[in-house]
């Protein structure tokens, strides 16, 4: 991923006794009573003749953690891309905090509180960890310099990246690149954070470390939507599972019920046990 043309020149100095508060990272969960924070209805997505999403309804409540599972090619990543505005739906709508955002571009949705990570981390090359986060904070809203710095500091602390704040991003190992991907999304001040297979390529120990970070983000008040093939780490966070197959949601509910659903078992293994 190419670097932005401008970047901050400040280095990061961790403040003593810094508190990691929801206010500092800019989380705002304002939503109409009893209404979902994120509400997608009747989503269809075609790429020429290929149907990738076929009438998907998907909701996320404030403070909720939702896992999305399903075989390869089920439409999971495309769903995330439509939710954040990277792809426009062929039909259907996306509402966020009660506002129709279906036609808003990704950058505008990000400023409103929708952020995502990618399967392969994409740090800004030639920049430090701190500079990556500062750039994201500036992108996520109209913040004064000190406000952006405070948000970056909180994001670094929440994700355990403060110790590496002045390291160049390209020198990081995979686990720290994943942490940076989380921290950079967090620096935009999201109300909903959408994770796309962020556990991929990690050892069991590294994946467990990353789950601890994600749980910390959830405790800070951020709603989580997480696509993941490593189900046992997903279940440490998600209290509701959605299973997709062939562009449709085939199961939605408590994790045990979803993973034992005959349709889910058939989708994964053609009738075998998961």
What's the SSE blueprint?
Elements: H1 22-25, E1 38-47, E2 50-60, E3 65-69, H2 76-84, E4 91-96, E5 99-100, H3 106-112, E6 114-116, H4 129-140, H5 145-159, H6 174-186, E7 192-196, H7 204-219, E8 223-227, H8 231-234, E9 240-245, E10 248-253, H9 255-259, H10 262-269
Parallel strand pairs: 3-8, 3-9, 6-7, 7-8
Antiparallel strand pairs: 1-2, 1-4, 4-5, 9-10
Could you describe the 3D structure shown?
The protein has helices at residues 22-25, 76-84, 106-112, 129-140, 145-159, 174-186, 204-219, 231-234, 255-259, 262-269, and strands at 38-47, 50-60, 65-69, 91-96, 99-100, 114-116, 192-196, 223-227, 240-245, 248-253. With 274 residues, it is α/β, with parallel strands linked by helices. The protein has a domain at 36-122 and 191-269: Rossmann fold, CATH 3.40.50.300. The strands form two sheets. Strands 6-7-8-3-9-10 form a six-stranded mixed beta sheet, with helices on both faces. Strands 2-1-4-5 form a four-stranded antiparallel beta sheet, with helices on one face. Helix 4 runs parallel beside helix 6 and helix 6 (174-186) packs parallel to helix 7. The model is unreliable at 1-9 and 16-23 (pLDDT under 50).
């Amino acid at each position: 991923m190419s670097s932005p043309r401008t970047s901050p020149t400040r280095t990061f100095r961790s403040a003593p006794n810094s508190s990691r508060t929801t206010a500092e990272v800019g989380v705002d969960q304002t939503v109409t009573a009893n209404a979902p924070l994120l509400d997608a209805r009747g989503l269809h997505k075609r790429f020429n003749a290929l149907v990738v999403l076929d009438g998907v309804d998907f909701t996320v409540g404030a403070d909720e953690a939702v896992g999305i599972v399903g075989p390869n090619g089920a439409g999971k990543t495309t769903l995330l891309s439509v939710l954040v505005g990277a792809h426009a739906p062929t039909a259907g709508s996306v509402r966020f905090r009660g506002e129709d955002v279906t036609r808003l571009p990704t950058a505008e949705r990000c400023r409103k509180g929708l952020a995502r990570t990618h399967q392969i981390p994409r740090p800004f090359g030639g920049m430090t960890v701190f500079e990556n986060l500062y750039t994201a904070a500036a992108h996520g809203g109209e913040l004064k310099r000190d406000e952006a710095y405070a948000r970056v500091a909180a994001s670094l602390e929440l994700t355990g990246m403060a110790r590496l704040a002045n390291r160049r991003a390209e020198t990081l190992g995979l686990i720290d690149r994943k942490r940076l991907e989380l921290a950079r999304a967090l620096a935009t001040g999201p109300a909903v954070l959408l994770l796309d297979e962020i556990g991929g390529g990690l050892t069991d120990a590294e994946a467990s470390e990353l789950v601890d970070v994600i749980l910390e983000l959830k405790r800070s008040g951020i709603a989580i939507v997480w696509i993941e093939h490593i189900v046992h780490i997903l279940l440490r966070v998600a209290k509701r599972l959605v299973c997709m197959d062939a562009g449709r949601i085939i199961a939605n509910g408590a994790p045990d019920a979803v993973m034992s659903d005959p349709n889910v078992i058939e989708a994964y293994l053609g009738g075998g046990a998961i």
